[in-house]
Specification:
By secondary structure, the protein is mainly alpha-helical. A hairpin with a 5-residue loop joins strand 2 and strand 3.
Length: 310
């Protein structure tokens, strides 16, 4: 276990490394000329960890040596000025494989260490993507009942397919509009849906939705489960917009159905690698945003799971 003493030791070691820093490949006379720039800048950068200290020392030495040859006054406001940094990265690092990494480090040092150099402020972090709120069990049951009450047979099939494929297989408008009846099949005890681009894959259906999806597939045959003859991206939006729901009943939203499917799997303890594959994504951020909807385990059950992994 790390302790504050360990942290103090690490800080002392970094300070020692900074004060004793001497670049190996630089002539002593050149180092003597740029040391008064490099060491104070290195101290001011307050590196966290030896790797950061060594990286900062390396780029400050490189740009300091280049600045000396260019006749640039050796100070942070002149050497770490935006145009100077870009000129150095373009001409002084022309054949350096790590040019991109060095440029990023120098830009960060320039923003942190200068006060008057015209660096643009760091861009504001992108706000997290709004995650669609999953349906509750009651809302999902109501939605399914409303899907069966649509005014025409074609609308009933389309609405039911949208609900079942969304809540049962996590398919939203990117995939659900292209699923044909022939894309649904039993594989042993598991019902699977074959979906196409983007992220073509076979998705196992949640057990509670198997019968509904198999019935819809049998009815559709080689036709699309959501009906119609087009796979235009607005197909699912059109079905949702024309959905006839009851008073104070939830609206039909494919992205909420997908969130419901994800939360169901997270609540079941499905592993992330398999869930990411079934979801057709590599982005785990959305899953993290949905964790607040996953019911907490009792302490004893959580302890057992953490102990044995089940």
């Amino acid at each position: 276990m790390a302790t504050s003493n360990n942290d103090d030791d690490d800080d002392d070691e970094i300070r020692r490394r900074i004060e004793g820093y001497v670049p190996r490949a630089l002539p002593a006379t050149e180092w003597a000329a740029i040391r008064s720039f490099v060491i104070p800048a290195l101290r001011a950068s307050k590196p966290v960890g030896l790797a950061a200290m060594e990286r900062n020392a390396r780029v400050l030495t490189l740009i300091g040596g280049w600045g000396l040859k260019q006749g640039i006054p050796l100070g942070v406001e002149t050497v770490l000025e935006p145009d100077t940094v870009e000129r150095f990265c373009t001409t002084g690092l022309e054949k350096t494989p790590s040019r991109r990494s060095y440029r990023a480090t120098l830009r960060a040092l320039g923003r942190d260490l200068t006060k008057v150099a015209p660096w643009e402020p760091k861009p504001e972090p992108m706000p997290p993507r709004a995650v669609a709120v999953p349906y509750t069990v009651m809302e999902l049951a109501t939605l399914w009942e409303d899907a069966g009450r649509q005014s025409t047979q074609s609308r009933r099939r389309a609405a039911k397919a949208l609900v079942a494929l969304g809540a049962g297989a996590g398919l939203d408008g990117r995939w659900v509009r292209t699923v044909r009846g022939s894309d649904v099949a039993r594989d042993g005890l598991v019902t699977k849906v074959m979906v196409g681009p983007p992220s073509s894959r076979s998705v196992p259906v949640l057990a509670e939705w198997e019968d509904e999806i198999l019935a819809l597939a049998a009815e559709a045959g080689d036709e699309y489960l959501v009906g119609g003859t087009t796979t235009h991206r607005n197909r699912t939006n059109d079905i949702a917009a024309r959905f006839e729901d009851g008073h104070n009943h939830p609206n039909l939203a494919p992205n909420r159905l997908r969130s419901t499917w994800i939360v169901t799997h997270l609540s079941m303890g499905t592993r992330f690698p398999e869930l990411l594959h079934a979801a057709g994504t590599r982005r785990i951020e959305t899953f993290g945003s949905l964790l607040k909807y996953v019911p907490a385990l009792e302490e004893s059950a959580a302890a057992r799971m953490l102990r044995v992994g089940m």
